[in-house]
Write the structure tokens for this entry.
Amino acid sequence: MIYKIGIDVGGTNTDAVILDEDNNVIESKKTPTTLDVETGIFNALEGVLSKTDINFHHIKSVMLGTTHATNAIIERKNLAKIAVLRICLPAGQSIEPMFSWDESLKEAVGNQYYLLHGGCEFDGRPLHQKGLIKEECVSVLNEIKETGIESIAITSIFSPVLEDYEKELADMAKEILGEDFPVSLSCEIGNLGLLERESSAALNASLVKVIKKVSYGLERSLERYGIQAKIFFAQNDGTLMSLNYAQKYPILTIGSGPTNSIRGAAYLSGLEDCIVCDIGGTSTDIGILVKGFPRQSSLAVDIESVRTNFRMPDIISIGIGGGSIVRVKEDGEVTVGPDSVGYNIMTESIAFGGDTLTATDCLLASGLVTIDSPTCDPNRLQSLNQKTVKKAISVITEKVSVSVDKIKTKNDPLPVVLVGGGSILIPGDIEGASKVIRPNYSDCANAIGAAIAQVSGEIDKIYSFEGRTREDVVAEAKEQVKQHTIEAGANSDTVEIIDFEEVPIAYLPSNVIRIKAKAAGELLKSTLEVTNV
Amino acid sequence: MTMWIGEQEIEDLAIGAALLGTGGGGDPYLGKLMVQKAIRKNGPIKMIDPTEVPDDELVIPTAMMGAPTIMVEKIPNGDESLKSLQLVEEQLGKKAYATMPIECGGLNSTIPFVVASELGIPVVDGDGMGRAFPELNMETFNIYGVNGTPMGLYNERGDKCLLTTLDNKMLEHISRGIAIRMGGACHIALYGMSGTDVRRTAIPNTISLCIKLGRAIRQAGEGKQDVIKAIEHITENSIYGKSVVLFQGKVVDVERRSTDGFVRGKAIVEGFDNFEGEELVVEFQNENLVAKVDDHTIAIVPDLISFLDLETGSPITTEGLRYGFRVTCIGIPTPDIMRSEKALQVWGPRDFGYDMEYQKIEEIYDTRREKV
């Protein structure tokens, strides 16, 4: 039997789990997240490893979902000095790279950029000429070499249609700046929308040092236990990337937390199509799983004032949690949240001897649920008006039901999986749910989500029907996306298209269509056996 | 009245333009950034009332045409619209006194501000669509007899084209083909006209209206006021009429298909509160065109039909509309200048393939209310 470890670093807790090769949970541990993150990871690892008697040599992989990248951007810490190279001339001069970024973030990464000739039209015709102007690129790269830039981001107009220009420049960069110099290509990160894709690539370039530090820390921790495992990072879309790939594309780790939680919860419930409702102390996150993957948001995502076209899981957050404060207005109306006593629920809520009426108090007072804790005494709630209790419960149920319904794409009822410490708030059914499931081990669903993740590939391109049928175009797109997935390390027998979308292009009467597609598959076993020395 | 447009006004304009875009018109985000950059460089931009343009002075409207999806990838250099305006100036042998939007809904509400800032000329507070429409002949300028050409087309490479056509229908037809060959999007200047013609044919004060609406929606988002009431109040005091709440409910289905550059389809909304038990269907072709409740038509193009997020009041485009959204569907009566017999021959329901007569939104609304 071989084993794997899943670790998820959240805002509050760092969780670790050990799973066997059939994805059965062997052990789990929850520890507080620490400021430096590394210590928290180490504590969680130690917690889970000390509980088990399995042979550490049989642990072959470690999957990590982490907030390092987000923290680094928010705190402007450990960011690399970057240069952004935009291949766009004779177009693309109106808004320069990083234009809309916050000044302090621009400063932290150096705000250096160059515009170069090249790029193409939506149908692949060159904007300037076929290929780059060599002398122009060489002079820019030499200047970069001299100014102490640590990492570069390259973007080119319509690179999701034709990657050649970005790749050609990347090759020249290798020659001049060195084989190991970090180069981020926008075509490998983002979708159509130049400014957003460029910003994603630039943020990525600024994160290369951060992710090196994380992987170093994790490798050191594993060494202490004599674990020789392959390290993977969880991505925002619920799939994995290798350590190598993560070092190239650290930005893809952003947003992996909620994704892992949704996937882990669904795994525990054995469902592939369902809604997951993660009720915490302060808020409830609701997401939807389609064919085993969280549906992604179609909206632009802001990371610290930077608009990216990064695809994040579509999550609805509402201000309802176990610690939500319940108030009765003068007219008798009862409100729940959005403020909460949060992690102080064990001291501040009435049932625990405090004096703040919380959502948890109302559920306890109704007699619908009980909490097995020595400090919890429902008798403290006897003076509570049952009308208030009933109203509060109906407000909670209503708010959760509305959000559950909002996240659906069709009217048909779907099963709802309830996880999180606050899930006692919903003791009964949810409107629009075919059934409500409350799985075991649900408190470390996110670490499990990281451990069970698959590998994926994606495309977003504009295709022309000129001279061929729609079927040909669709077949070509599907083949391309499957190939991407296999290149990412998937077992080709398990690769499946998980998302395929034809997007019409408005105000453009011609035979073109934009196709967004994604495929995923099981991690190839041989990828793991390589480390099996 | 002269108004100075700074960064905050442009933020608000972008929101208001999304509302008057009636679901289409393209995301004003890129245009907004371009104007903000121009303002940082050249200072606030002067916007004048149509009455402030001297009779014989020349106003040349500017815009982008083609697919906004293309423009957000192949972003402009920023001087294309200006260059297209200069093409028209050269041909007419006269300098422009001001520029003006051809369309106040969506992305095109912002483009003339970039031109104005660079040239140091004002923007006229008005436009020729009063909302968003898909074709360049759908302009009050065309309806009331302004020749759209000479028209200048310019792309980021510097390819340019000066177009002269016999009528404005042909202007639309030929220029659309050129825009595609120019890479799917280009910048244009057209409908050059005198101050007298501006006052005769333009829909006045639509840009300041967008800014007011955008500000109201922003402030409502900050919890300062009720967005529906604010929109009612603002539209009632404009040349449009008082907005009406057509429907409130939950989107239960959105159907889209693409043909000939149009995203056609419909959205179905299930009513709640006052609309419990009723069903709204809104049909769109890039923009929202017809609204029906239980098969009774309640609003028809050119009157404005827009979706707002029920809670925040933010406008929702047809592209962004999805199952489960809680929405308010509001209707805004168009100004009389857009409802004349001549105007309805250009953008009445029949021009979008509907076999029905146009009926004023406020009249349908009153009849419906009487029945209730």
About this structure: The interface with chain B takes residues 88, 90-95, 99-100, 119, 121-122, 125, 127-128, 157-158, 192-195, 298-299, 307, 402, 405-411, 504-510, 513-514 of chain A (CB under 8 Å). The longest strand of chain A covers residues 455-464. Chain A has a mean pLDDT of 86.
